[in-house]
Design a protein that fits this description.
By secondary structure, the protein is of the alpha/beta class. It contains twelve helices and ten strands. Strands 3-2-1-4-5-6-7-8 form an eight-stranded mixed β-sheet, with helices on both faces. The protein starts with a strand and ends in a 6-residue tail after the last strand.
Length: 296
């Protein structure tokens, strides 16, 4: 029970692969893009070096962790011997449907199929397979190596042993799991996204500026980042798609995304990953100032 596969080597996928490898699991990190795999390998090296610099990891431990991760674009090879697959591809239900169809065919009947989806129904993902009892949500938070939480989401047909197994594994990863029901946005995004949307509505209505909104939530509520910076960090396209899942899933207009958010996504202002959102970014991290869109 030590071989696992992570599919999708983006920010979430490479973080998930890293925490499994650090806990001693043998990980196949799978992506159709070889350049994304190379990038993931660089990021994992950098994150491990950061831990070594902070005396949280010994230099001698790094080679074993790196050796625990095998990077591949061959899905069939990557799934070989895996008792658990964690899907972390983009939040697109059609892509996930195609992948879960393949996973159903390429994995043994007892293999657990977990999804890191941030809002898509687990019961829907399970319906794309012939083994819905083995499908479950395993929702990590970004940055995965730092954030404590794992949201575990059994679908309507998920077997209890599968839920219990993921609780056990999350603890082995040094994370704290909480089990929640399969409702739109689960708990994390059902609560986080309306807060981010309200911050964007407040900006849109000119109640306050970017800096004021974020500082009020940082200094007044002790949030590590203000909601607008956090939206940039998550990706404005991701925030928009989660809000749409909430709005459609509950059929309630209170979740309707702010027009400003919709327009920013249309304009390609996606936050950190595009270099500009509510703030401007020089490289993938550094905030150089408030976006020209919102400067007075
Ligand atoms: N990988 C690994 N470690 C990282 C990291 C990364 N990408 N980014 C930061 N860290 C570490 C740093 O090394 C540092 O470690 P120490 O405490 O040991 O020194 C620690 O995290 C704090 O980092 P910094 O001092 O550089 O910066 P910071 O204090 O501003 O913290 C942050 C950065 C951890 C990202 C913090 O700002 C934070 O917690 N922000 C909120 C993050 C959040 O809300 N995440 C959830 C997003 S929602 C989601 O993911 C789910 C979804 O479905 C949308």
């Amino acid at each position: 029970m030590h071989n696992i596969a992570v599919i999708g080597s983006g920010t979430m996928g490479n973080g998930i692969a890293q925490v499994f490898a650090m806990a001693g699991f043998k990980v196949h990190l799978i992506d159709i893009s070889t350049s994304s795999l190379l990038q993931a390998e660089l990021i994992i090296h950098k994150n491990l070096d950061r831990l070594i610099d902070k005396d949280k990891l010994l230099l001698v431990q790094k080679p074993d962790i790196i050796n625990n991760i095998h990077f591949t674009s061959d899905l069939e090879l990557g799934l070989k011997d895996a008792f658990l697959v964690v899907e972390a591809i983009s939040e697109n239900i059609l892509l996930k449907e195609k992948l879960f169809n393949q996973l159903d065919k390429l994995t043994p009947n007892d293999c657990i199929l977990a999804s890191n989806t941030s809002s898509i129904s687990i019961t829907s993902l399970a319906s794309f397979t012939g083994k819905p009892g083995k499908v479950i949500g395993m929702h990590f938070m970004n940055p995965v190596p730092v954030m404590q939480l794992v949201e575990i989401i059994p679908g309507l047909l998920t077997e209890k042993e599968v839920t219990d197994k993921l609780i056990e594994i999350s603890i082995l990863l040094n994370k704290t799991p909480f089990v929640v029901s399969d409702f739109p946005g689960f708990i994390s995004n059902r609560i986080l996204m309306p807060m981010i949307n309200e911050a964007i509505l407040s900006l849109q209505e000119k109640v306050a500026g970017v800096n004021e909104i974020d500082q009020i939530m940082k200094l007044g509520m002790a949030h590590p980042m203000g909601p607008l910076q956090l939206a940039d960090y998550i990706g404005l396209d991701v925030c928009l798609s989660i809000l749409n899942v909430l709005k459609d899933g509950f059929g309630n207009p209170k979740y309707a995304p702010a027009v400003l958010l919709i327009n920013m996504v249309k304009a390609g202002k996606l936050g950190v990953k595009s270099g500009e959102g509510f703030y401007q970014y020089n490289d993938l991290k550094k905030i150089s100032g408030i976006s020209a869109l919102f400067a007075n």
